[in-house]
Write a structure and sequence with these properties.
The termini are far apart. This protein is of the alpha+beta class. The protein has a five-stranded antiparallel β-sheet. It has twelve helices and five strands. The longest helix is centred in the middle third of the chain and has 19 residues.
Length: 270
Amino acid sequence: MTTAQTSAGGLIREWRTRRRMSQLDLAMEAEISQRHLSFVESGRAAPSREMVLHLAEQLEIPLRQRNQLLLAAGFAPSFSERPLTDTTLAPALAAVESVLKGHEPFPALAVDRHWNLISANAAIGPFLADVAEPSLLQPPVNVLRLSLHPNGIAPRIVNLAEWRAHLLERLKHQNDAAGDPVLVELERELRTYPSGLKGARPVPVEPNGIVHPLRLAHGDQVLSFISTITVFGTPLDVTLSELAIESFFPADEQTRAVLVRLAKERAEAN
């Protein structure tokens, strides 16, 4: 989708189709007539700024793409986009660092919309051990590429097939939601990496399990993690809206004990 080639009505129609909504569905959600929505999509009616933002809200369009929609409709963008070095973002970035630090001794990292690493806490070490390709650790570090590349973390992921499927499904869902061409290309690249299926035995699903964990070989042990994603709840800045924190928690007591021990060793070394 590009505003240079697509009208505001065309973009609204594309987002509605992406969200698998009919004209009637969107009209009902937006509390407008289907006839008016049809006129907007066809270009027979020019939407006001308020209508553009209202429809974007109903379609859950990301802030970056809302700005593009506004430009296509002939209006100035509503949402700022600041570099991470902008002083006005300092309080939000300080909050991110507090979350990362507060999550120790367990690993946590912050990423941008393309899954490039913004920051990480000191407990991330076990993930980065024995990465065979140094370029994967050169900024900007793409955490999905690092995870699934055959010379990255992938060789140490015990349940690679399952974890790869999880990451690709997450990325596909993100692409379905945002349609970012950089992420589309990243998904295409990651799908060319080894799946981990050849010669591998499927990992049985635990009958009492609640999530599918990441199992990572670390020395002669296997660390097991579950993870959560945190985003800012009410962002008005494009950059801030695209930041996410992934926090890893131990899925068993052995993993917890190893992480606590590693944290103690780091403290003693300092």
